[in-house]
Amino acid sequence: MLTLEEDVEAQALRAQGWSVSAIARHLGRDRKTIRRYLAGDVVPGRRRPVGPDPFEPFVAYCRARLADDPHLWAATLLDEVAELGYQGGYSTFTRALRRYQLRPHCEPCQVARGRDVAIITHPPGEETQWDWLELPDPPVSWGAGKQAHLLVGALAHSSKWRGVLADAEDFPHLIEALDAVVRRLGGVTQVWRFDRMATVCHPASGRITPAFAQVAKHYGVRSVTCPPRRGNRKGVVEKANHSAAQRWWRTLGDEVTIDEAQAGLDRLATKLDSRRRVIDGERTTVAGLAAAERLHAPPLVAFPAEFDLGRIVTPQALVSFRGNAYSVPPGLGGAQVQVRHRLGADMLRIVTEGGATVAVHSRAPDGAGRVIRDDGHVIALEHAAMGAFSHERPCTHKTRRPPSSAALAEAARLRGLPATGPAAHVVIDLATYAATAAKLGSAPTYESEED
């Protein structure tokens, strides 16, 4: 078998007038081998099968089965053909399926494969693409569980993107992160594009929810959703997700706090604004294209979505929220309460499960580590703590208290020994008392005592 280089050299030497024998001597090959390659009977780099293909008798059956079910597992199909007499292994079987191209193309599952793909043009300032990025294995100190949540927004024209970490993907956290990303991007585009997330639209129909309709009105945008199974409509933000995952999250240390991680993400996104672009033959950068985006200013305050987060009251009558602690009246230690806060508001409320408001506080900056206590809560907590103490003399722990006679009698019973001491004369069987009471039919008189 000749290599590709040897085949090329043999063809060139033959074109120069060399004989087959001379070429064979020059390459150190057999003349018959050289003659087959020069005649085109053998293709370099491809081995000629020694015998008939053992898979060929089963080609028609596999083609029919995969036409019935294009998603039939190869392992399942291998079990079927093995019962029909096929003796090859799994890897040989799957290689034969690819060689004969037996599995048909499935359009719903492979929308971007096997067909032409159009380039979608995005005028400046037209569209912002949004997507949640689930990040596995966050640092333990975050208390985020199995994954962290990153909302990424990307300008479709310039591909400038920004991201914000969130505690969850529910409606209030979506609005809070969305507002933060908009202000990092520098403004609002005409359209916001989402996939079919339940906080934005009804996944089945793609129609916007009434709650998010109010958000779109607040920011002055149109909200559109991608058609089902058309994830490539959000290619700009998907590429931003890939950059964030590989260049930021992959190298994040275990000791990094949430604030430090957010700062690192902001630095990366700003650095990527210097990416080079060529538009109509002119060289520019992402930042240059972003400067030409026609964005309108966001509202002065975020949409007033309300957070309703469950918390447990500490024994010190404190409730934690966003890196700070807020006081509640005493007596609620260990109780479940709800912290309610509207975006853009300066106050927060702490409500019991029954709906009663037990505390109202001015909100401190997130992560400040402050303890906000109401004066009335402090006084009530001091009175409750002092009232719990007893004025009686505490027990003396050095007092000598040997086992009592009852304890000694019980110990003797357990050892199988006869009881001794005063406890031995204690009557346990009440039948003696019953017999004595039966003899006393009437109370004794003075005469009977003399007799």
Automatic annotation (TrEMBL):
Domain Integrase catalytic positions: 120-299
Example of a GO MF term: nucleic acid binding
Any GO BP annotation: DNA integration
NCBIfam families for this protein: transpos_IS21 (NF033546)
Family label: Belongs to the transposase IS21/IS408/IS1162 family.
Protein name: IS21 family transposase
Protein source organism: Amycolatopsis mongoliensis
Name of the gene this protein is made from: istA
